[in-house]
UniProtKB/TrEMBL annotation:
<feature type="binding site">
    <location>
        <position position="62"/>
    </location>
    <ligand>
        <name>substrate</name>
    </ligand>
</feature>
<feature type="binding site">
    <location>
        <position position="189"/>
    </location>
    <ligand>
        <name>substrate</name>
    </ligand>
</feature>
<feature type="binding site">
    <location>
        <begin position="160"/>
        <end position="162"/>
    </location>
    <ligand>
        <name>NAD(+)</name>
    </ligand>
</feature>
<comment type="pathway">
    <text>Amino-acid biosynthesis; L-homocysteine biosynthesis; L-homocysteine from S-adenosyl-L-homocysteine: step 1/1.</text>
</comment>
<comment type="function">
    <text>May play a key role in the regulation of the intracellular concentration of adenosylhomocysteine.</text>
</comment>
<keyword id="KW-0963">Cytoplasm</keyword>
<keyword id="KW-0520">NAD</keyword>
<dbReference type="InterPro" id="IPR036291">
    <property type="entry name" value="NAD(P)-bd_dom_sf"/>
</dbReference>
<feature type="binding site">
    <location>
        <position position="350"/>
    </location>
    <ligand>
        <name>NAD(+)</name>
    </ligand>
</feature>
<feature type="binding site">
    <location>
        <position position="134"/>
    </location>
    <ligand>
        <name>substrate</name>
    </ligand>
</feature>
<dbReference type="InterPro" id="IPR020082">
    <property type="entry name" value="S-Ado-L-homoCys_hydrolase_CS"/>
</dbReference>
<dbReference type="InterPro" id="IPR042172">
    <property type="entry name" value="Adenosylhomocyst_ase-like_sf"/>
</dbReference>
<feature type="binding site">
    <location>
        <begin position="223"/>
        <end position="228"/>
    </location>
    <ligand>
        <name>NAD(+)</name>
    </ligand>
</feature>
<comment type="similarity">
    <text>Belongs to the adenosylhomocysteinase family.</text>
</comment>
<keyword id="KW-0378">Hydrolase</keyword>
<feature type="domain" description="S-adenosyl-L-homocysteine hydrolase NAD binding">
    <location>
        <begin position="194"/>
        <end position="356"/>
    </location>
</feature>
<dbReference type="InterPro" id="IPR000043">
    <property type="entry name" value="Adenosylhomocysteinase-like"/>
</dbReference>
Length: 428
């Protein structure tokens, strides 16, 4: 690991220390747009809820995550951060966290798989009491190769749909050994972060990578959860003809009633100009779909892991690969001469080819995470191993603070209204 011998810096492995000043400016820019988290930080500085608490976090190393790390440190936490996706790591942010803010970071942009897991293990070497995860790789590592650390862990938070799916399966199989709270499932996360954040940042990444005009073109969205809705809504607003593919009849019906075409991917593959996967599953775009795609079709994945598009098949069967034709865009030339474009290697595109969600959206998600971590300090001992929801009062507090920061006000119930809603004795 890259640890100076005669330095008071925390343990770390980063790409370039000289980027620290640049990273600090970008972190401060993000912080300006995260007023709720700033209020929580001010409270944590006084109450010190994490005094003596060690937290290992496997998250996207971005400016917004840096603001959260600073909030936890202000509350007394000892933190070790590693990256949940090699392509999302901002090397200047990592440098600033280490050299400007004294936080332990193990993250380098584009690190290979071995380096990725070395970083996860390095973050676990602090023997954490809590864990933060984006995608469940850190929790999985704890339950496979670092089992000796489990007795020390009170609980943790998971912030992605993919991670919650994996945790629920672990819990179903009786494998999950400590409580994990599904921060992803709060209203202020999936209604706003997933929908507005993913919707905007995914298209931002496609535009940065290809400079493609969306108006008048056909965009296929695989999956109509909150992330898929966000992508579809924003693409429709920019003039695209949007097709939805789904496996859930209720979500498919919802898409149709919002005016979108719905069909199997086998049919959509013949029509699409742009394909965006947001399912959390594997092989959503595969050989049978590649075979019928148009020349010049663009593919991107906004699901957490790089398995939704079968990149391995493209690597093995394409007649030619033109790497990095444009920013984070590879061109695969098929045997018949058709060219298929893949953005960000099939990894999470909004962080691989752009900067991820706007800070104002992450303000809510990371406020949920900070307050849930505080809740765990107090209540983890009362929670059984398994997946738990964030307490409703935390979600409502974050929504109220965010609404107020945006200048929004709401009504309050009169005593008579409150009594009516909380009594069964009143007739119609």
């Amino acid at each position: 690991m890259n640890v100076p011998v005669t330095s008071t810096l925390p343990k770390h492995d980063i790409a370039d220390a000289s980027l620290a000043a640049q990273g600090r400016m970008r972190i401060e820019w993000a912080e300006r747009n995260m007023p709720v988290l700033s209020q929580i930080r001010a409270r944590f500085e006084k109450s010190q809820p994490f005094a003596g608490v060690r937290i290992s976090a496997c998250m996207h190393v971005t400016t917004e995550t840096a603001v959260l790390m600073r909030v936890l440190k202000a509350g007394g936490a000892d933190i070790a951060l590693c990256a949940s996706n090699p392509l999302s790591t901002q090397d200047d942010t990592a440098a600033a966290l280490v050299h400007e803010y004294g936080i332990s970071v193990f993250a380098r942009n584009a690190v290979d798989r071995d380096g990725y897991y070395k970083h996860i293990n390095a973050s676990l070497d602090i023997e954490p009491h809590q864990v933060f995860d984006d995608g469940c790789d850190l929790v999985n590592t704890l339950h496979t190769t670092r089992k000796e650390l489990i007795p020390n862990i009170a609980g943790g938070c998971e912030e992605t749909t993919t991670g919650v799916i994996r945790l629920n399966q672990m819990a179903k199989d009786g494998a999950l050994q400590f409580p994990m709270i599904a921060v992803n499932d709060t209203d202020t996360k999936h209604m706003f972060d997933n929908r507005y954040g993913t919707g905007q940042s995914t298209l931002d990444a496609v535009f940065r990578a290809t400079n493609f005009l969306l108006a008048g073109r056909i965009l296929v969205v695989a999956g109509f959860g909150y992330c898929g809705k966000g992508v579809a809504e924003r693409a429709k607003g920019m003039g695209a003809d949007v097709i939805i593919t789904e496996i859930d009849p209720t979500k498919a019906l919802d898409a149709m009633m919002q005016g979108f075409r719905v069909m199997p991917m086998a049919d959509a593959a013949k029509l699409g100009d742009v394909f965006i996967t947001v399912t959390g599953n594997r092989d959503v775009l595969r050989d049978e779909h590649f075979a019928v795609m148009k020349d010049g079709a663009i593919m991107a994945n906004s699901g957490h892991f790089d398995i939704e598009i079968d990149v391995a098949w493209l690597e093995q069967h394409a007649a030619k690969k033109n790497a990095k034709m444009r920013h984070q865009t590879d061109e695969y030339v098929m045997a018949d001469g058709r060219r298929l474009l893949l953005i960000a290697e099939g990894r999470l595109v909004n962080l691989g080819a752009a900067e991820g969600h706007p800070a104002s959206v992450m303000d809510m998600s990371f406020s949920d995470q900070a307050l849930t971590a505080e809740y765990l300090v107090k209540e983890a001992k009362n929670l059984k191993p398994g997946v738990h929801n964030v307490p409703t009062y935390i979600d409502k507090e974050v929504a109220s603070l965010k609404l107020k920061s945006m200048g929004g006000l709401i009504d309050t119930l009169t005593p008579a209204q409150d009594m009516y809603l909380n009594s069964w004795e009143h007739g119609s």
